[in-house]
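As a representative case, the lines below give one protein's residues and fold tokens.
***
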Amino acid sequence: MSTHQFIVMWDMYGLECCENITAAMQAKTWNALKGTEDFVRIPNLMHLKLRAQINHQRHYEIYLVDVEKDITVSDITAMFERNPQESADTIRRLGHCVYSDRVERQAVIV
């Protein structure tokens, strides 16, 4: 597989969650095949959506995005720290929207 899938979640205050789903699933599968009981945390999309819905005043957005295999969570986090608006626009353009409570500017009627 040449890409990894990430869950990326942010709100009006910045990036809140960035998880590599592919790596977590691979680790869980390998642990099951090896018969080990090592705990592997896989992000629960429903928990993230519930958090976003309950805290609607923070205007969360959740996206699934496929990235090249050599891109890490640290890379995406650094990207959001350097330029949050461009990062959000890039994820919106390339990713699949799971949840969005994004505030769109309404037309001003004079």
Q: What stands out?
A: The first strand starts at residue 3 and ends at 11. The radius of gyration is 16 Å. The beta strands are 3-11, 14-20, 61-68, 96-100.
